[in-house]
Amino acid sequence: KQVSSLREQNEKLQKQLKQTNEALLIERSKSKGRTSNDSANGSANSNNWIRDLGELEPKQLKPLATRILKSEKLPAIALVARHENKASLLLALTPETAKTLSALELIKPAQATLQGRGGGKATLAQTGSSHIDKIPQAIKALEASLEKNLKTR
Fold it and tell me: How many other CB atoms are found less than 10 A from the CB of residue 15?
């Protein structure tokens, strides 16, 4: 009985910890909504589509992107992270946006810049690369792709 009670308590605590970590990541993503070159250029990413999260495991990007899309009502969100000297870039589109655009197509310029590999579907695409030094150029390439395609809709 006591072991069962401890297991239940542990499961509850694990769930709370996961929810707290996700909430913290969402807050962290809000404070990093600007690309690394924004302050130098004095321009903000006005639509807040791309967020550089710094050090983060790639597996955390998809659930985070899903929550951000729902909570912030954006047509698309791109998350950039580094982990163990590798770059990860994920692009998620709402189902509505994916009716006319494909995340796989929109991420291609950034993927080419990173010389990365990846895949996905119309609503979500991810690429990874060992060329972390090319992240700023990949962000610019993705930003141009999103600006061109999302603003003309």
Answer: 10
- 53 with 36: CB under 8 angstroms? no
139 with 114: CB under 8 angstroms?
no
Q: What does the pLDDT look like over 65-87, one tens digit per residue?
A: 988 888 888 899 999 999 999 99
Model pTM above 0.85: no
Please provide the distance, in angstroms rounded to a whole number, between the alpha carbons at the two ends of the chain.
59
Which of 74, 67, 71 has the alpha carbon at shortest distance from 50?
74
What is the DSSP annotation of 26-88?
HHHHHHT-S-TTHHHHT---TT--EEEEEE--GGGHHHHHHHHHHHHT-SEEEEEEEETTEEE
Asked if residue 145 lies in contact with residue 139, where contact means CB atoms within 8 angstroms, the answer is no
d(CA 97, CA 49): 13
Q: Which residues on adjacent β-strands are paired with residue 79?
A: 51, 90
